[in-house]
Amino acid sequence: MEDRPTIELRDLWNIIKIRIKIIIFITLGSVVITGIFSFYVIKPVYEAKTSIIIGPAPGKADNQDSNSSDIYLYQKLMKTYSAIASSQLIGSKTAEKLNNGVTKEQILQNINVSFEEDTQILNIKYQGRYPEEVRKTLNTLSECIIEEAKKVYPTDNIKVIDREELSSYLVRPNKNLNLSLSFFLGLMISFFVVILLEYLDNTIKSEKDIKKCVNASIIGTIPKDISLLRVDNTNPPIGEVFRIMRNNIQFSYQDKRVQTIAITSAEALDGKTTTAFNLAASFSERGKTVLIDCNLRNPKLHQIFGVSNSNGISNFVIDKDEILIKPTAVQNLSLITAGTKPYNPSQILISSAMKDLIGYLRGNYDYIICDTPQVMMLPDTQIISQYCDGCIMVASFRKTKKEALIEAKDMLIKVNTRIIGTVMNRVKVKDKGLYYLHKHEKRRFLKRP
Under a CB-based contact definition with an 8 Å cutoff, are residues 98 and 136 in contact? Predict the structure, then answer.
């Protein structure tokens, strides 16, 4: 079964930082959409309310025979008055008095009648789209209710209280509430999306991922902002990152000298050419080093050094030209370019002339670094690795897929290639705690004069 990344609580903050743009986009998008609907799409609804108190007529209330039983009786009658207030008769009379096109069905649909428990107070609410219309309708409605209630119980005293609340107010949409809820809902959705993307993201995100895929030691981690060493008339200090890589390679195989190294990756654009150059420049501090551009299909090293690619490996093998080993501005570092783009790169690399070239270089140089194509879909790296003491695989942080890395490893193992180690490239400084190195090595090194 395919392994999927598990997300630990301690990694959540890093995930949020990496995908902060998604969180901001979804959250703000939710607020903006809600705002558009609340202010321009949803029709506003206004509400007016009033209260009616029902009791005995004044003459009856002054009678000494009136007692608490009368109050209790009126409290029981509140259900009757409530039914009268929301009856078809009241709706028809109100619509007739208003005579503004509002039907009794609309009035009865928008009216809400309730009474307070153990009181003689009847609460009436009415909702509509326009404040003035709502206020006027409620006034008329209250008058009709009082008229019909007095016809049923003529001795009762019914009057409107809380007249100050006849002014209408907006009940929906509640814009402030909607915006607040949309913000928190958008935030929750964005977190869910980020965690889902992280779960589905099957790229390399840690040294642990690389070890699990390749089963080889990690010889170096390259920060994102460190690219190439400067090529000019001086020999600048080599970045500590690449010194560490060089030392790890040499100390890991003290029983057997590692002289010829192939630099490759599972996929294209993982930074293998950058790593090959920087590592070659680092090895040049220890002895004569030659950097070979074995990527005959898409050579890059001649562009980095600003030299011609007209005479290189392909010309040496096909045209029998004398191999041109070009010196560079970096002390003890020489370059062999790929040469004219050939029709059959694999046949050139597997030729006896290529094997003889590597043999010649072994006798004349201390270290040989080969920049090769990606392993996937091409046999070139498998061929070149047969001439080398080992291979270094470069994986790009949050780009290289685990499946591709595993498949590339298996392809190299099939031809008995020794994988010296792996390099994790383009790691953000804060993700690896490399602030000190980043601070002193932040300048981009490889720029032509």
Answer: yes
Considering just the CA atoms, what is the radius of gyration of the chain in Å? Answer: 42
Using the CB atoms, write b or e for 349-382: b if 16+ within 10 Å: bbbeebeebbeebeeebebbbbbbbbbbebebbb
Q: With beta carbons less than 8 A apart as the criterion, state whether 147 and 63 touch.
A: no
For the chain, where do the domains classified as CATH 3.30.70.1130 start and end?
A: 45-172
May I ask the CATH class of domain 45-172?
A: alpha beta
The pTM score is 0.68
Assigned token pair, 323: 């191999």
Question: For tokens 């209280």, what's the residue?
Answer: 161
CATH class of 207-441: alpha beta
Per run of 10 residues, the mean pLDDT along the chain (length 449 residues) is 55 81 94 92 87 66 52 69 85 87 87 80 86 87 84 70 62 88 95 89 88 90 68 49 88 79 94 92 93 95 91 89 86 94 92 94 96 93 94 93 94 94 83 41 36
